[in-house]
Design a protein that fits this description.
The protein has six helices and nine strands. The chain has 186 residues and is α/β, with parallel strands linked by helices.
Length: 186
């Protein structure tokens, strides 16, 4: 009986090695056509969504201060966007810079155009968000194996009216992909 207990314990420990730790990053996209007239229901939805990063159209300072109490990272692409540890702005394809950032576990980039986002996602283990003109279209790119249509586009959002959308990005898979790439080079 003791041998059986040891075997069961060993198998549990063995399978724990393969258990994937989920690392999800929730990104919210807030589309408002008229910043002076925001719907309170929409604002409450944003506040209680639990997003890690909010990417938004132009919003007034009063609403921004309310949102910043609950959401630590808010990006407004039309303003002078400042990069932080969760979201880095990339405006040109600099392989050394991007490679050093992905090695530091930066896996989400805000890019200036769709093509740049697609290129970065295919060359490096990273998600890219193109939201330069957020009211026209927001595109999220990922490495081809992670996209449903094998085209490198994870999601494309075209807002019709004032809306709030949440996208969950699995950063754990991206980091695993980077580890596989690193191991194959050595």
């Amino acid at each position: 009986m003791k041998l059986f207990t040891i075997l069961v314990s060993s198998f549990k420990n063995f399978f724990q090695l393969f258990k994937k730790k989920e690392e999800k990053l929730k990104i919210g996209f807030l589309y408002i056509k008229n910043p002076s007239n925001i719907d309170t229901k929409l604002l409450k939805e944003v506040l209680y969504s639990g997003v890690d990063i909010l990417i938004s159209t132009e919003i007034n300072d009063k609403i921004l201060s309310v949102l910043s109490k609950k959401i630590k990272h808010i990006a407004i692409p039309s303003k002078n966007f400042k990069s932080d540890s969760h979201l880095i702005y990339v405006d040109e394809f600099e392989t050394q810079k991007i490679r050093s950032l992905t090695r530091k576990n930066v896996n989400v980039f805000l890019v200036k155009d769709r093509k740049l986002g697609w290129m970065v996602s295919q060359m490096f283990p990273a998600y890219c968000i193109f939201a330069q003109n957020i009211l026209e279209e927001t595109v999220i790119t990922a490495p081809i194996p992670l996209t449903p249509n094998s085209d490198g586009i994870l999601s494309s959002i075209r807002p019709v009216s004032d809306t709030f959308r949440v996208v969950e990005l699995d950063v754990g898979i991206i980091r695993e992909l980077y580890q596989i790439q690193s191991d194959s080079k050595t």
